Structure formats: C-alpha cells, structure tokens
Amino acid sequence: MTMAQYAMLLIVGWQTYNIARDSGMSEAAAAGQLGLIGLLQFLPLFLLTPFTGLAADKFDRRNLGRLTVIAQLACAVVLAWLTWSETISLTSLFAVAIVLGVARGFSGPALSALAPNLVPKAILPTAIALSSIAWQVGMLIGPAIGGLLYGVVPALSYAAAAVLFVISAVALSLIGKVPQPAARKDLRPVKAIIDGWAYVIRNKMVLGAITLDLFAVFLAGATALFPVYARDILMVGEVGLGFLAAAPAAGAAVTALWFSFRPLKTNVGPKMLWSVAIFGAATIVFGLSTSMPLSLAMLFIVGAADMFSVYIRQSLIQLHTPDDKRGRVSSASLLTISASNEGGDAFSGGLAYLIGPAAAVVAGGVGAIVTVAAWSRIFPVLRTTKTFDPPDNLLEDDQSTKSQNPQEE
Q: I need a surface site. Which of 178, 316, 374, 392 has the fewest CB within 10 A?
C-alpha cells in the first residue's frame, strides 16, 4: 500500500507543478499550487480525526483498512484514465487530494492501532522497526517506480498504483480475527473522543513526543518542493524526481533495518531530540544545494534521522497508551503527522511563494532546530526518559479499566 500511495502522491505533485508552470505561472506561484495540494489533503483529515480515532476503537480495524484501500484504488483508476486521455487538470488533481485525505484519515488510526494487537508487548519496538522497514521500502521503491513509469507512459504510474492497492486489499483480507478492545458502554461518542484527547494532553510523554514531530516536520517539510528542485533548480526531470523522493526513504529503511537487529534500549528521549536536530541541519544543507549528489546525500540523512525519531516516538506512544485508547491516541498522532506532512507541504508551498523555494527550505530547517531546543525545556521528560518501559501507574490504570468492565472482556 505504501508503494502505491507514494508513487501516486509523487506524480500528483509533479503533474500539479508542471500544469501550473506550463500555464504560465511563475516558479513561486506554481510552488504555491503544491502547497494547496497539501492543504486539501490535510483539511479533511483534520476535520475527521476525532471520529476516525473513535471508529478505530469501535469497529473492526481490518474492515476499516480495507475500505480505505478501496477508496485509494478508485483514485488511482480515475487518475490513470484522466492521464491516459490527456484530460488531467488542476481541478481533478485537487479533488483527488481531498478524497485521499479522507481515506488516509481513517486508515491511519485503524492500521496503527491494529499493530499492537498482533504481537506481544515485549517485542513491539522490534515489530515497529520491521513495520517501518516495510513502510520505508515502500517509500523508497514507490516514488522511483512512479517516476520511471511516468517517463515511459504517464498513465502507467497510476495503473501500477492501482494494481498495488488491489494486492493490499487482498493482504488485509488474509489477516484473521484479532482482539478488539472492549468498548466502554458508559461513554457516549463525544465523551469517548474527549476522553482520548484528554489522555494525550495529560500524558506529558505522549504529548511531548507527538508535538515535537508536529512542529519540527511542519517547519522543515521539503518534500512538497521536490518538483521545484527537479525541474528548475537541479534540472533532473521526472527520473531525478523519483531519486529525490527515494533518497529519504533509503536513509529511513537503513535505519529501520538496523533497529530490527539492534533495538534501541537506552537514553531514548535524548536520542530522539538529537535525531530531530540532525534532521533540521541536513534540511538546511539540502535547501542550499545545487548539486544532485550532495542533495541526495543530505536527503538520505534527513530520512535516517527522521526514522530514528519515528522509531522512538511510535514505540513510546504505543507502549505508554492503554489498549482501549490506542485508536483515539493514534488518531491524535495521525493528526499531528498529517499536520506536519500535508500541513507542512501547504506551509512550505506558501512560504516558497513568498520568499522563494530554497529560502523556504532553509528557514524550515532552522525552525526544526529551534523546536528541539524549545521542547527539551518545555517537556523535560523527553530529556530524562531512558527506556521504553511505561510507568507502573499506567499499567495499573490499564488493569483497573479492565476490572471495571469485566462483562466486556
């Protein structure tokens, strides 16, 4: 599924930028259209997040995952037809961006909350690393395949994504019945949503980890501007665009592979902060680069540092959250991830329109480093957390919740 998603998203951005440039827009104005694509994906996810998290806690997470894959499959088929018939337009690309935002809004909490039900808690960090490898390999191969296929026949990139979505739907159908947390019948839907968000705010570890990613990646999101770099700064075309998109995923995949063999066990909080700082520094160098090899090297470091942070953050969030709240907490985490990714794309595109693409990327990298310094003081627990082990009171609260609802176990 990840291969299909990122192949499709890359080509959506490439077509958006090229249609805008070919229509006579300036480089800055066309970059602003890329920001609009990010905004249109983020808004539906932002508006639906409270309900998507509740859905992940109330309904079969496998079924939710399958439905979202089918929605994305439909988007791929539509885009393949419009590209083949040469009727693709900014309006159609914007409409598809909205549907993708809705689909990803429901799939994220469901699939993220499903993972801890499939493996024992003791090996969850390793499972997250292995899952991340699959995700990052998809991010690595998907954009490269999308760029190469687009260079052969543009519609082929979307057709390949459609085939991959079909495979994903079949794979999800092969997962057997898994434990579903017992829903508390005393909580009405609105109260259940508030309960999940209240837990995020109350748990400083979870809140600090989630918001660190939110602000750092929101400010330093350079991926939306890859089409600008590929066409007008590095001048490497759609094939080079695929390599630019694959470079961060390559760094992330190598890091995730390392963690699958050598799980991190000590000083997890400080190491997360340092990884985000390195992420910002590499982003600054990429923003200033006009050399393709240097740009790829910096993007490799960006991906590796981001994966380092993701591995720690996701492990902490999953292990520090009771199972009956994982769907809602995962939805909060997904909201911040989308705000940092798609929202960050919108921010980067808008900033590029105002001050230029390179200056926008550099400013974002500086902002990420400043965020690390600020969060290390606002959330001192991030500096002092040594292991992934949840506090004893969390485990007691989880057991207490189950004992209060014995009829639902």
A: 392
Q: For domain 2-175+186-408, is the CATH number 1.20.1250.20? A: yes
Cα separation, 221 vs 37, whole angstroms: 14
Hey, is 235 helix, strand or coil? Answer: coil
Could you tell me if 57 and 183 are in contact, meaning their C-beta atoms sit under 8 angstroms apart? yes
- The closest alpha carbon to 53, from 337, 363, 367, 263, belongs to 337
Q: Count the neighbouring beta carbons within 10 Å of the beta carbon of residue 354.
A: 11
Roughly what angle, to the nearest 10 degrees, separates helices 268-288 and 292-319? 150
In contact, 388 and 266? CB cutoff 8 Å: no
Residues 123, 268: Cα–Cα separation, whole Å: 16
pLDDT digit string, tens, across residues 152-194: 889 999 999 999 999 988 887 777 776 555 554 444 555 655 6
User: In 3D, which of 136, 330, 407 has the Cα closest to residue 252?
Assistant: 136
Write the CA distances from 254 to 65, 107, 257, integer angstroms.
27, 25, 5
Cα 232 from Cα 264, distance rounded (Å): 41
Model pTM score = 0.70
Give the angle subtended at the CA of 163 by the CAs of 157 and 169, to the nearest 5°. Answer: 135
Amino acid at residue number 115: A
Answer yes or no: are the C-beta atoms of 387 and 269 closer than 8 Å: no
Q: Please determine, for residue 196, whether its predicted confidence score (pLDDT) is greater than 70.
A: no
